[in-house]
Write a sequence for this structure.
């Protein structure tokens, strides 16, 4: 078969030898073009099914050749190459790691320790390999069995560099926190590991904090951030970290691009973002049943002994306040535009926590929270909003960002939240997405907060905005009128009250001929005027009163006696005069629109007595009841006398 010459990028890759590319991996310059090219070379060849098999054979042959040269420079290339392969292909990387360790350092600690003073660069490259290998359970077991002492010695050794200490501490944290394969450790080794590691995680984290403060190069910083991020799931470490102002200030400054002397790697940025999320994560709110299960698990794990310290909402709120005051939201704003999907999810989660406390929201708004959240809710340029929102990682990030935005909209006038730069319409679709497709399927808190936010948006003098809420969310909103969660149902009724002044929503209740569900919707809304929840009754009564302004409303409302009776009974509400007022407005509108039938229906239902009792109930009320008294008097008059013809006195 005739061989076709290669052209393009793959041909450029193959102009140099695989050893040349492997050597380029060993540079410490994170911005090195040659290193980036080498990474692309290995990634392209391993990922391409047509070259993967041959590439792996070449890499194995290269490793064997380099090991056979028996010199530190060659061994550094070996360790760096294996580390790189592990990050690209765990299965193949695991094979290379096990093989390399068996051939190069078969006795582990016994060989490594003498290297510490003789070849610091070689020792550091091996440490980096051990740290990366810990992401694979089988490799992690080998690190623990053969290299635990050597790694731990680095922290105390006089000649250790900051970078080496960061790598060693991060490796020990991985060994302490990541689960080992159950069949690889005997009781003795487990006891040895726990004795050395379990009590020292906080000290290791303190070491990493010190390294972060002192570090001046990107590689050292990256190692320290990775280890601190891993350990920051522990409450004690969260508290120690947040109390170190210098460390937090430096990390936020790196996010905000305040530090010109150091450019963090993308992995470092992701690590800092994840650390901030861990610091701001609120503990889950447990139901009584979940709380009992947790207590049983704790007793099984710890018996009557001391349990690890647990996070509390108060502790998280305090940490969020510190981070807000140090400019974390502004730092997010500096990064969010270019952030990859994984980082966007982390930022969204942190933002949701930062605005959970109501008193934090004004500061968050001042720092640019809306800019961050709106950016998180924007799709990539190559995707439509609808397609983007169907992707799993997008759904998570959108939900978190929408929840945070909902909290801001609940406590702040939407006019102040949105500037000329952003239209409030950008918030509608994500907020609607928070609502379940039926009355049972959604997250109650997310639904409640999103409904309240949509209600505030619907209160704006913006017909297009109200139309968008209706067109994108009506089916979900309607279903939530029947939610078993009283707070969600209340919020849904309040939203309908704010939307019912629009023609499309009013038609959903009044277009009897065109919509078979129209009568059912109206019955549901009228029944809700008799809810045991006063705010729900108030919102439902307001919706009925607004609905009564539409032309066909009077005829539709009296067409079913049970509906009309409930409307009349709104005048007898003893808990909130606002409900009485809304009932009176509704009846007044109906009398003005369709006098004779409405007056007759009212009289037949005992309306004269009901209105008289309502008037008596507010007769001695103060001036604040003047509008109510006047409206009730108009209803009473309207039941007896028809409205005057236009133009008469």
């Amino acid at each position: 078969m005739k061989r076709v010459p290669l052209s393009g990028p793959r041909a450029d890759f193959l102009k140099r030898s695989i050893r040349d590319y492997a050597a380029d991996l060993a540079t410490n310059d994170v911005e090195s073009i040659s290193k980036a090219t080498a990474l692309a070379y290995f990634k392209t060849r391993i990922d391409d099914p047509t070259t993967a098999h041959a590439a792996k054979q070449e890499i194995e042959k290269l490793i064997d050749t380099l090991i056979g040269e028996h010199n530190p420079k060659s061994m550094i290339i070996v360790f760096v190459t294996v580390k790189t392969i592990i990050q690209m292909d765990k299965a193949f990387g695991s094979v290379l790691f096990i093989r390399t360790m068996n051939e190069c350092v078969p006795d582990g600690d016994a060989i490594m320790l003498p290297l510490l003073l003789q070849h610091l660069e070689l020792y550091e490259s091996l440490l980096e390999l051990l740290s990366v290998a810990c992401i694979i359970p089988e490799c992690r077991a080998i690190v623990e069995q053969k290299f635990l002492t050597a790694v731990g010695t680095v922290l105390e050794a006089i000649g250790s560099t900051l970078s080496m200490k960061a790598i060693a501490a991060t490796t020990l944290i991985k060994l302490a926190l990541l689960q080992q394969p159950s069949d690889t450790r005997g009781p003795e080794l487990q006891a040895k590991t726990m004795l050395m590691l379990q009590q020292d995680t906080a000290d290791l984290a303190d070491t990493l904090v010190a390294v972060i403060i002192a570090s001046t190069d990107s590689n050292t910083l990256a190692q320290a951030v990775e280890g601190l991020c891993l350990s920051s799931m522990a409450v004690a470490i969260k508290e120690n970290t947040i109390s170190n102002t210098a460390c937090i200030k430096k990390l936020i400054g790196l996010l905000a691009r305040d530090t010109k002397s150091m450019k963090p790697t993308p992995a470092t940025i992701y690590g800092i973002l994840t650390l901030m999320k861990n610091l701001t994560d609120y503990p889950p709110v447990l139901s009584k049943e979940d709380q009992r299960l947790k207590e049983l698990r704790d007793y099984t794990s710890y018996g009557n002994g001391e349990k690890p310290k647990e996070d509390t909402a108060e502790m998280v709120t305090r940490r969020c306040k510190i981070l807000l005051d140090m400019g974390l939201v502004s730092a997010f704003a500096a990064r969010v535009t270019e952030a990859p999907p994984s980082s966007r999810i982390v930022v969204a989660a942190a933002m949701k926590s930062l605005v959970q406390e109501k008193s934090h929201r004004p500061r968050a708004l001042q720092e640019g929270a809306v800019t961050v959240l709106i950016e998180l809710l924007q799709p990539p340029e190559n995707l439509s909003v609808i397609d983007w929102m169907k992707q799993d990682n997008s759904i998570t990030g959108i939900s978190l960002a929408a929840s945070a935005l909902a909290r801001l909209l609940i406590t702040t006038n939407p006019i102040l939240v949105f500037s000329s730069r952003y239209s409030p319409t950008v918030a509608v679709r994500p907020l609607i997405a928070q609502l379940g497709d039926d009355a049972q399927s959604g997250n109650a808190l997310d639904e409640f907060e999103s409904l309240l936010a949509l209600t505030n948006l619907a209160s704006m003098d913006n017909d297009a905005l109200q139309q968008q809420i209706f067109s994108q969310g009506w089916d979900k909103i309607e279903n939530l009128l029947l939610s078993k969660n009283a707070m969600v149902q209340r919020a849904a009724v309040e939203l309908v009250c704010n939307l019912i002044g629009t023609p499309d929503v009013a038609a959903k209740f009044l277009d009897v001929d065109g919509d078979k569900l129209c009568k059912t919707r109206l019955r549901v809304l009228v029944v809700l005027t008799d809810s045991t929840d006063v705010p729900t009754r108030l919102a439902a009564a307001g919706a009925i009163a607004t609905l009564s302004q539409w032309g066909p409303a009077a005829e539709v409302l009296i067409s079913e006696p049970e509906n009309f009776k409930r409307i009349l009974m709104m005048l007898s509400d003893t808990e909130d005069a606002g409900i009485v007022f809304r009932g009176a407005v509704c009846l007044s509108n109906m009398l003005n629109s369709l006098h004779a039938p409405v007056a007759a229906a009212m009289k037949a239902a005992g309306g004269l007595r009901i209105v008289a009792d309502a008037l008596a109930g507010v007769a001695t009320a103060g001036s604040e009841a003047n509008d109510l008294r006047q409206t009730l008097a108009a209803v009473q008059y309207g039941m007896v006398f028809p409205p005057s013809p236009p133009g008469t006195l």
About this structure: Residues 558 and 597 are 8 Å apart (CA to CA). The chain has a mean pLDDT of 85. The longest helix spans residues 392-411. The radius of gyration is 34 Å.
